[in-house]
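To whoever is on call:

I kicked off a structure prediction for a single chain this morning and the downstream step that reads the tokens threw a length-mismatch warning. I double-checked the sequence; it's 109 residues and nothing unusual in it as far as I can see. Pasting both halves so you can look.
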Amino acid sequence: MSRDGDLLKVLTRECSATSQQAVAKRLGLSGATINQVLKSKYKGNLRRIQSRVEGAYMAARVDCPVIGDIPRDQCITHQQRRRFAATNPLRVQLHKTCPTCPNWQGGNS
């Protein structure tokens, strides 16, 4: 099965077990985004959605050069949702390291 097929299968299963809103909250996304992905109408970066689903529901992990072994969805969260904070040493390290990491999927969107 293709990765997109796996994504849809896992999202459908999880939404059936709970709800689209619960899955969206778990993934750090909007309910509308989950709905669009399920209907194959999502125009954004499907790779990021795939990474979040793999980390949250498929036990995919990455080796973060700063933190170590973490779930893939946490990696994406650190890349996208965390703002730079000079007072937080971890965020300083992530801010410097993430853009050069092989797990990097691009800026904030």
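Update from on-call: the warning came from a stale cache, not from the record. Cleared it. Sanity check on the structure: DSSP finds six helices and two strands in the chain.
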